[in-house]
Amino acid sequence: MDDALNIDTNVLKKKISSLNIKGYFNYTFLNDLNLDDYEVYYNILYINESFKLKNIYNYIYDRIESLRKKHDLERMIKININENINGNILNELLNDYIDKDIIKSIIIINSIQQYFYPIKKL
Average pLDDT over the chain, rounded to whole? Predict the structure, then answer.
């Protein structure tokens, strides 16, 4: 599973360690994964102000829409970009989309990584 990730979780942990946590919510959308360090992705969400959660969701949405052009992926729910979302709504939206699907989980993880730590596209 770790081979499917864009960035080593230890690199992410190191980058996050110096940043302040802005809020806390008990996210669960990755809890069903067989991944040792999935909490690092929740920590990426914690370091963002709550009003940025909609930006993160829209970033994930846009990436999945791009992937849908090449692959048979289910569409995510489009949210109103003029309204903020909280951790509960983000968690619910991501849980509903992933629905215990490992491929969708990996796409979400990689999207969160890219949002936080963009890497050069090949």
Answer: 83
